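README: folding subset

This subset contains proteins for which both the sequence and a predicted structure token string are available. Records are stored as plain text. Below is the entry for Class I SAM-dependent methyltransferase (278 residues), shown exactly as it appears on disk.
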Amino acid sequence: MVSSHPKIDVALTGVSETALLTLQVRAHEPRRPDSIIDDPMAIQLVDSIEFDFAKFGYTRRQDMAVRALAFDDATRRYLIDHPSATVVALAEGLQTSFYRIDAGGVGDQFRWLTVDLEPITKLREQLLPHLDRVAVCAQSALDYSWMDLVDTDDGVFITAEGLLMYLEPHDAMGLITECARRFPGGRMMFDLPPSWFAALARRGGLRTSLRYRVPAMPFGLSASEAAKLVDVVPGIRSVHDLPYPAGRGRVLNTLMWAAHRIPLLDPIRPALTLLEFG
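--- output ---
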């Protein structure tokens, strides 16, 4: 799906630039004949942007698509039980989750709130269709005033996909704590690298190419560390360590299955965490 309009020049920096990396990876996947995700809006976005995506190096990988599927599945399950809920996508970047979920048979009553910095929200407004059910809040997720915009009457599902690892530990924990306080009965989902991986990124040891270095990741938790949040954060009723959905390839799926079920591997695998607020 190629846009008939001139491409939009995009210049993002720092953590915001990772939105372009994840978009490129995710848009490549649905072009494959054996794709694991259907994401026509991601393809449209990539085709509408003028940017040197080659700087990111090899992007023909499926990890971002697998992660997107995991967030889609958990969000969709919540919306089945709460069809008029509000989904809050923190630091949404150039994710296209709303469009995939909206096409997934959960009805047309749920609402969506995008929370991100102004350069990202302006870009989204240029590239994405304007919909009555999608609201945009141009600010940091750490400016808690976005919480005042959330209608809690019909349920709240908060996603922090690819966000918390880029926050300082006290900021990440503060965000989780405030969400638990403000949205009793709601849920929050996030992904985090294990501590060793975050430490490697902090030392500048992660590159996707000679031209691109992954931003520092101050925060990381293992699945067992995330499980302890129920004991240290008031308002968290339960913590779920979610498995990643199946990807493409028997070896990959076997490794993911083993990593999720063998306790010895807990410290070295990424955590996919779903919180239920009491």
